[in-house]
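In the lab's daily routine, each protein ends up as an entry in a very long ledger. A line of letters takes care of the sequence, but it says nothing directly about the fold. The three-dimensional part falls to structure tokens, numbers that each stand for a local backbone shape. The outcome of that step, for a single protein, is printed below.
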Amino acid sequence: MAADFQPLPPRAAIAALQARGQNLRPSFAWQDVYASLHADMFTVAKSAGHDILDEIFEALLKALEEGSTFEDFADELEPLLRQRGWWGRTTAIDPLTGQNQIVQLGSARRLRTIFDVNMRVSYATGHWNAFEANKDVRPFLRYVAILDDRTRDEHRAMHNLVLPVDHPFWQTFAPPNGWNCRCTLQSLSQRDVDRLIAEGEQLQFEPPDFGTREWLNKRTGETREIPNGIDPGWDYNPGQAGHKVITRRLEAERDL
């Protein structure tokens, strides 16, 4: 089943993906391009040494523009990747260590991850554009989790958390907060907040403290304190990071 994204004017998410597509960056491991660096580039792990980034990016952009499902995306892209030899398990030299190792190139599972991550990050950027544009009349964000047996405990605990758009909590905890995270943010006016309370929604107005754990990026040697409930590599605000990149590029174009 394709990822279930919130309705959004397509141009916002498309612009976010197009901005990243201006800087295609092959990489060997996902840890090589960490967190907010993704907002300014498009990369796929194990793409280094393979001429496939253009094809993957164009397939994602087409899927976003046409509202295609994951199945449509994969059916079109898989034959091309197989033809290019970017499929299955093989050996490759890690440019960081110089050692030969077994790596996973394309697979149905990897294509789903590529599709899901890039669609969610693009939509998050489009949403954040709207949050910034409308925060004078809709100054609050509500964390919305999918409450089923796949939901992380910390994400479930954040459901119905309501904080101002500019609250520092969102610098780290704005979704997606990890691989396969399905959480979203919803903008609210004061009237919306009052209505939800009147309807019996148990809103929260104080951010939780889940604590942190130390994580070592073995590719860069950097040690980071990662909040519990967030996967390494997702300890930033994907939507805001993308919004800043688009804003900088628009300002640069106006200055030309």
